[in-house]
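Researcher: I need the complex structure. Ligand is calcium ion. Inputs:
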Amino acid sequence: AQGNLKRPDTLKFTAVAHSTADTMSVAEGYQAEMILPLGTPLMSGIADWKDNREQSAESFEWRMGDNHDGMWFFGKKGNAYDAKASKNGLLVMNHEYVNSSELSPFGYHVISDNNAAPIYQNRRLASDVRREVNCHGVAVVEMTRRADGMGYEMVKDSKYNRRITSSTPAQLTGPVAGSDLVKTKFDPTGFQTRGINNNCGAGLSPWGTYLTTEENFLGVFARGQDAEQLSASHNYGRERYGASENFPGWEYLWHTPYAKDETIADEFVRWDMTATGADATEDYRNGFNTFGYITEIDPFDRHSAPQKRTALGRFAHENCAYAPVESGKPVVFYMGDDARGEYIYKFVSKARWSNADIGGGLKAGDKYLNEGTLYVAVFHEDGRGEWRPLVHGQNGLDATNAELPFAGQDEVLVFARAAADALGATKMDRPEWVSVSPMTGEVYVTLTNNKYRGEREDQPLSAANPRSYEARGKSRGNDNGHIIRWAEAGGDHAATRFEWDIYLFAAPSELAAENLSQLNKNNDLSSPDGLYFDPRGVLWIQTDDGAYTDTSSCMLLAALPGQVNDGAPITTSAGQQTRVGMTASDDNIKRFFVGPEGCEVTGITMTPDFKTLFINIQHPGNTWGAVAGGSTPRSATVMITREDGDVILAESFT
Ligand code: FEO
Ligand code: CA
Ligand code: CA
Ligand code: CA
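Model: Output:
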């Protein structure tokens, strides 16, 4: 039904200028309103957020969490999902991480003990850690259209309102469920874990559930000195994911709070992957392996547990985008692993699509997401590409593999990065969001930036990652990022061959040698991250930048892309040949919104009537989002509507 919307030929709104103000700027004729900031109560009986930050950890089981990220608006009719309903819906969103210093009444507080073992030298308060654990995860919020027809308001006390946190029990499903690699003291059978964590981008499934992603879970885990040696492959796998011995995690230190008797309670020790017991059922050595998955949530079934879909691989998942479904064909999902030099993946389901599964909830998820083939992308220098399968026993993914001898498919999936290494996958400049064009079926991925490109031996220049340059007085690899895209062979998303080009090189317009897409002041950008094709074929691009923020804070742009190979061969300033797929103009890419200083603009969803666009403002600086009279900045959702109530970009569609 959405295919018959004709995409406009040009973008007709007036571009928003660069801005570094502490306010939002949106295109003329539109209004932007902050809603659902950190701490907003979803239920009566929970006090409003106060700037003293004394809200209890427990209260966050019924409040909006921190660092709003990926989201989706689920239209609702009666008690069921309706993809066409706009009056009422469930807004489901991720709370990616916490700004510790802005969340605790004490700021970022640690107790230091230099005599302790390395990973316990800085210890945090139990109350702070509990609050942080509950500020992560997902929020489900029922929204209803306001009486005047403009935008939405929360339905407080809705039976659908719900928080899922980093302590909510979750189910492991697919080939890794029950594996020795995920058995813990919490569940010695390896089918359950506690919590979802660092939920970044988001996606919808074709059957109407929410797909959240676990990205930087590494940061909340610690690994000390293992009392008992793990297998060589397990050790290698941990290190490939950043967890070497005596790794204290990032600043969170969730494994450290301790009581008077000096034993660390189970709720904290579970973030410590040090092997201390006789076997995996006595400690949390495998806790780390139970995070890093695409996780499915049915927002319409509030008693259901999140389902970690292990068949889609374990890595720093950014988002998950499905290809248009066709009856009788497999369902295909595209995903990026956001770390410098990591890979792009796709999952092809074993089950064939049937429209009868729409509305089928987690049962449909069991059908399509637990069995299938995970592939990793190789981008050849000549513009062709191929998908290589992560299947145990094929292409050397077996016990003979030197770095990590793979004993089975569970090991291939838990240590997907190591399997992809063995297959010769192409190391990319930090794959962030993926989106599929509803017009051409071509797949777009933001490669946000990579300071190691061309600077580190293991990340040499390639046609798909062709820039490395000096900026701001220093060698910075690919400082501004780009967007790559490809067309699957024969238009078949299950194909193993494709053709690619680089849709867009981001750059400050004044950085002439790197401005390969010829951006101007109305559309220049740096570090593309969030990416979303609306059903009309308009591509929305969001930024998470630090390289150009002296000139402009992070932003949202609208674009009208063409297709692969409509560009020309070029050579970058680093001497690398590649193909650029577009020449920018005010007709085909334009800045629509600029966020407040210090923020990232991320997460995007539109109501089915195209009249309301929701985006998220993450980690704003200064005091944006603070309560009246307060000073603590807060992440929040922003609701954008046209002043005349018409559809978003109406002027371009007439
Ligand atoms: Fe959570 Fe890669 O952004
Ligand atoms: Ca991101
Ligand atoms: Ca980012
Ligand atoms: Ca972020």
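Model: Summary of the prediction. The radius of gyration is 23 Å.
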